[in-house]
Design a protein that fits this description.
The complex is a heterodimer of chains A (111) and B (114). With 111 residues, chain A is an all-beta fold. Chain A contains no helices and eleven strands. In chain A, the strands form two sheets. In chain A, strands 2, 4, 5, 9, 10 and 11 form a six-stranded mixed beta sheet that branches. Chain A has a five-stranded antiparallel beta sheet with strand order 1-3-8-7-6, with no helix packed on it. In chain A, a hairpin with a 2-residue loop joins β6 and β7. The relative contact order of chain A is 0.35. Chain B is mainly beta and 114 residues long. In chain B, the strands form two sheets. In chain B, strands 2, 4, 5, 6, 9, 10 and 11 form a seven-stranded mixed beta sheet that branches. In chain B, strands 1-3-8-7 form a four-stranded antiparallel beta sheet, with no helix packed on it. In chain B, a hairpin with a 6-residue loop joins β4 and β5. Classes of the chains: A mainly beta (111), B mainly beta (114). At the A-B interface, β5, β9 and β10 of A face β10 of B.
Chain lengths: 111, 114
């Protein structure tokens, strides 16, 4: 079982819709969760971090964490074509507390 | 310059060459990281330095040799690489190795080994 799993996509949504990106992780001791956005040919940039169960909102982005279900998600409201990118879920896992990345979900927002 | 910078941005090398990748962070951070990103695969952590001391080496082949002379600079020395080592090599930094610390990435070096 992979430590951090994401649907690879591609996920396509129309402009203005809500995009929902999901991530599950295997280490119950994980405490820190991050969403990064990576445009093609570019490096990852941090969008959100979340550490406690529940929702955390920042502009059009909402991160949701459910530690009991080992599940973290990212909602993008009013999706824009500029949101088209690969979204990487990252979790502090393992005894060494390394940042482990999922393989990413490719999102395309259609104008 | 601000943030995390990496040079060169692109590198083509033969299997017998020796080259080095450079990373510099201007954020006052104490931890620095090397990652490898291959096509269709997750980011793989290679090395971690905290306060100039190497704290992680994730079973990386010895043809990759890191060097961290101070908290702001990180190098990755390359020698006798294989074509499968072609990838995007990303440097990142964080305040330190505490569990909640966010990592900030440089633009990466795209490496092609012929």
């Amino acid at each position: 079982q992979k430590e951090v799993e994401q649907n690879s996509g591609p996920l396509s949504v129309p402009e203005g819709a809500i995009a929902s990106l999901n991530c599950t992780y295997s280490d119950r001791g994980s405490q820190s969760f991050f969403w990064y956005r990576q445009y093609s040919g570019k490096s990852p940039e941090l969008i959100m971090s979340i550490y406690s169960n529940g929702d955390k909102e920042d502009g059009r982005f909402t991160a949701q964490l459910n530690k009991a279900s080992q599940y973290v998600s990212l909602l993008i409201r009013d999706s824009q074509p500029s949101d088209s990118a690969t979204y990487l879920c990252a979790v502090n896992t393992g005894s060494a507390r390394q940042l482990t990345f999922g393989s990413g979900t490719q999102l395309t927002v259609l104008p | 310059e601000t943030g995390v910078t990496q040079t060169p941005r692109h590198l083509v090398m033969g299997m017998t060459n020796k080259k080095s990748l450079k990373c510099e962070q201007h954020l006052g951070h104490n931890a620095m990281y090397w990652y490898k990103q291959s096509a269709k695969k997750p980011l793989e952590l290679m090395f971690v330095y905290n306060f100039k001391e190497q704290t992680e080496n994730n079973s990386v082949p010895s043809r990759f040799s890191p060097e961290c002379p101070n908290s702001s600079h990180l190098f990755l020395h390359l020698h006798t690489l294989q074509p499968e080592d072609s990838a995007l090599y990303l440097c990142a930094s964080s305040q330190d190795r505490r569990i909640q610390e966010t990592q900030y990435f440089g633009p990466g070096t795209r490496l092609l080994v012929l």
